[in-house]
Design brief:
Number of helices: 22
Largest sheet: 5 strands, antiparallel
Number of strands: 11
Radius of gyration: 32 Å
Distance between the termini: 103 Å
Length: 517
């Protein structure tokens, strides 16, 4: 009943804000246009469509807000008015009262606010779908940012996810593409990531891991966590100040090189994915700033680590081979990799899949992002995957989402960025490190502790293996096996001798008989 009530509320909200009008506008089919006009009878809206869409997503809750956040990075797919409004969801979601934040912080720490902070600003500096952030100062004078989880989030998310699980089951049963698209597995992955976001201790741990991984790259700054003041509802971290990456005019005025910034973003992403297998998976503009501090000028500042992605060694190797094959335009290798990984049925014709991939990908090369119609590319890829029954890989959903974010940021900073030529040298270097002498040396180094323990034991293990066993039953069994083997060998030898002898005798008879013909 709760799911039914939620479904009715969603439908009512969409109708209230006229989202059906937005969805059905601009269609070619006459009957759909007539349906849209019929649905709009008696309804008038004073607000623009972008504002109505944003307000509807805010009203529907965090899952829908996150959907709007992802869409906001795709300005090539959306009209400007809608993209501008959805961008407000990134860090300007309506906040909850500051007094409620103070109450949550004091309950989490079990003490009055004044015993922890020298000052605490009740007015949030940023408000997102899951939490909001306040500036404060610790007793020792260190400036910090305090992230506070929104109250009542768990129940709201559980209600929406329960509905999504049920809808995914229906889609899998009634849709011809249900099995291939794996909607239930995709929703299950989304379920895990959303619940991870509700634990701020987990987010702090994610940030600490990324901070260690990125320490030597000198391209991105990640705040330090203050572990004494991190709980599941409250997280205290180093305060980071910079210019939001979406404010390109301010960045240019500060002297930031946007072209270099776009290339650095690609390098950071591919480093996290292929070197570490651990990447920031929520890279919308609301979570990215740029430092203008002289010591770290021009570096990225990463925020909000509730969603991170992980890849196994096999995933990384497979993806790297696919990317390199794409960059080299080796479409046959791409098709073979799909077959080897089990993504397409074994009976798939490699030449047909190769031709289809070439048709989709060839127009992408040697062109800047601004000249690529990603909407058409995605449509044709979907048609190709449907034709060849390509199965969606749920473990890569986050990577696909992050790729969209990265491309959206690259388009915003430098429309002339060639994503392919920027990424290709990095991937080639990474593959050489994996399969070359450097990769072999690194793997031997990783295995050295195991070898150090095993090598001293080898002589003893070898001696024990070669020693005869004193077990009479075992000796009897071995002798019986040996006798059977000897008999088999004698039979094979006699058959071979007879066969060879027969051939020799036949040759002699043929030669003796030839003069009589």
């Amino acid at each position: 009943m709760r799911q039914l009530a939620r479904a009715l509320y969603i439908a009512f909200t969409l109708l209230r804000f006229g989202i059906d009008d937005i969805a059905l506008s601009g269609l070619r089919q006459r009957w759909l246009r007539a349906l849209a006009r019929l649905a709009m009878l008696g309804r008038r809206f004073d607000e623009p469509r972008g504002v109505r869409l944003r307000r509807a997503l805010e009203r529907l809750g965090p899952i829908f807000v996150k959907f709007g956040q992802v869409l906001s990075t795709r300005r090539d797919l959306l009209p400007p008015d809608i993209a501008d409004e959805l961008a407000r969801l990134q860090d300007r979601v309506p906040p909850f009262p500051g007094a409620r934040s103070i109450e949550i912080v004091e309950r989490a720490f079990g003490r009055p606010l004044a015993e922890v902070f020298a000052d605490f600003d009740p007015e949030p500096v940023a408000s997102a779908s899951i939490a909001q952030v306040h500036f404060a100062t610790l007793k020792d004078g260190r400036p910090v940012a305090v992230k506070v989880l929104r109250p009542g989030m768990l129940r709201a998310i559980d209600d929406d996810l329960a509905l999504l699980h049920r809808l995914a089951g229906w889609v899998e049963r009634i849709s011809v593409d249900g099995k291939r698209l794996k909607p239930r597995e995709v929703v299950a992955e989304f379920d895990v990531y959303l619940h991870d976001e509700l634990d701020l201790v987990r987010e702090a741990a994610n940030a600490a891991q990324l901070r260690r991984n990125m320490a030597g790259l000198a391209l991105v700054e990640i705040p330090e966590m203050h572990w004494d003041w991190c709980t599941s509802d409250v997280m205290v971290m180093q305060r980071m100040t910079g210019i939001p990456i979406s404010q390109t005019e301010r960045l240019l005025a500060a002297g930031v090189d946007l072209k270099r910034l776009s290339r650095d973003g690609v390098t950071i992403f591919f480093t996290q994915v292929f070197r570490d297998g651990f990447f920031h998976a929520d890279m919308h503009p609301g979570n990215i700033q740029v430092s203008v501090d002289p010591a770290t000028f021009g570096r990225y500042i990463a925020l909000d680590f509730g969603i991170v992605g992980t890849l196994t060694d096999n995933d990384r190797d497979y993806l790297a081979q696919n990317f390199l094959a794409f960059f080299r335009r080796d479409y046959k290798r791409v098709a073979q990799l799909h077959l080897e990984s089990g993504w397409v049925p074994p009976a798939t014709r490699i030449d047909a899949l190769e031709s289809a991939i070439r048709t989709v990908c060839e127009p992408l090369f040697d062109r800047p992002l601004k000249d690529i119609s990603l909407g058409q590319v995605l449509l044709r890829l979907f048609q190709t995957s449907r034709r060849f029954n390509v199965e969606i890989q749920p473990q890569l959903v986050l990577l696909q989402k992050t790729l969209l974010n990265v491309e959206g940021l690259g388009r915003q900073l430098d429309p002339e960025l060639d994503l392919w030529s920027t990424a290709k040298p990095f991937l080639e270097r990474w593959m050489n490190e994996q399969i070359g002498w450097a990769g072999l040396a690194e793997r031997l180094k990783d295995e050295a502790p195991r070898y150090a323990k095993l090598l001293p034991e080898l002589p003893r293990l070898l001696h024990a293996t070669l020693q005869p066993r004193d077990d009479p039953a075992l000796l009897h069994t071995l002798l019986a096996e040996q006798r059977r083997t000897n008999r088999l060998l004698r039979a094979v030898i006699w058959i071979g001798v007879g066969f060879v002898g027969g051939l020799v005798l036949a040759q002699i008879l043929l030669r003796l008989g030839s003069p009589l013909r």
